[in-house]
Give the backbone structure.
Amino acid sequence: MSTTKLIDGKAAAARVLTQVKEDVATLKRDGIEPALAVILLGEDPASQVYVRNKILRAEEAGIRSLEYRLGTDTSQAQLLNVIAELNADPGVNGILLQLPLPAHIEEARALQAIDPRKDVDGFHSENVGGLSQGRDVLTPCTPSGCMYLLREACGDLSGKHAVVIGRSNIVGKPMAALLLQAHCSVTVVHSRSTDAKSLCQLADIVIAAVGKPRLIDASWLKPGAVVIDVGINRIDDQGRSRLVGDVDFDSALPQVSAITPVPGGVGPMTIAFLMKNTVTAALQQAQAQRSQSEAVCLSIY
Ligand code: NAP
């Protein structure tokens, strides 16, 4: 198997995290200690693993982490109270509400309650709107990680035709907005598209965010396309459970110029960009607090 085509998300995430660690150290020297609060409702095993990993990465980067583990039966009002307390706490720079939430919680209302300046997931409507207007806002971590990988793999993205498969609020839509900002021509396909495959065949860049194991094989891809596989699907492979993407990796590999593996592609980038967003939020909040004359003279981003 050719390894030159592999886009190594683990290595890229390590580079991002090294930079984040350096930035945290710089901020601390200036009296700013970035802090991330993570709220987890319920006992979902996958969410528990994600939260553990986020806390671990934060600690490694020198970011203070606060963990709020709330019971499955936590009411909407109780959750909103916790969020309000964290919003009001100047020692907390980032607030992450781990999804999915129990069915009785209104997800949109809970996400909307987070102060947009502390919204390190970039899901608040103010940040979503800002992204679509091309303003400098906190942007969702997974699409930001994909952009980093794409820039490393392709260099200038201007003028390239990108097809995004999937239109979720978490991945597909912000991904399309970021690609547009990078001057790509962007096509978004979804479950109602009648011509997803033929549109995909025209793409220089394919972002697969569907949640369907190995849906996209070589027949969907233009020779030389760059493929970013966001999908994480657990399948039973001859009695053994394993993770695969939305792209049929073995089929696609000979056809593409570069591709992310699953695991080890986009996954590690999501956490790395959560840390980067936390540092950005901490810096922006500190800058807002300080007067013009003593503005924080850090040129981190
Ligand atoms: P989602 O909310 O379920 O959205 C899936 C999207 O795929 C929807 O827009 C859906 O269309 C579209 N779709 C479904 N079947 C399709 C088909 N046959 N052809 C074209 N489009 C189709 O999922 P998500 O949250 O975006 O996540 C997508 C995948 O990425 C999942 O595997 C998830 O686990 C993974 N993920 C990974 C990371 C990471 O860190 N690597 C982060 C987030 C998500 P409709 O809108 O018409 O229903």
Notes: The chain has ten helices and ten strands. Residues 142, 165-168, 170-172, 189-193, 196, 209-212, 215, 230-233, 266-267, 270 surround NAP (CB under 6 Å).
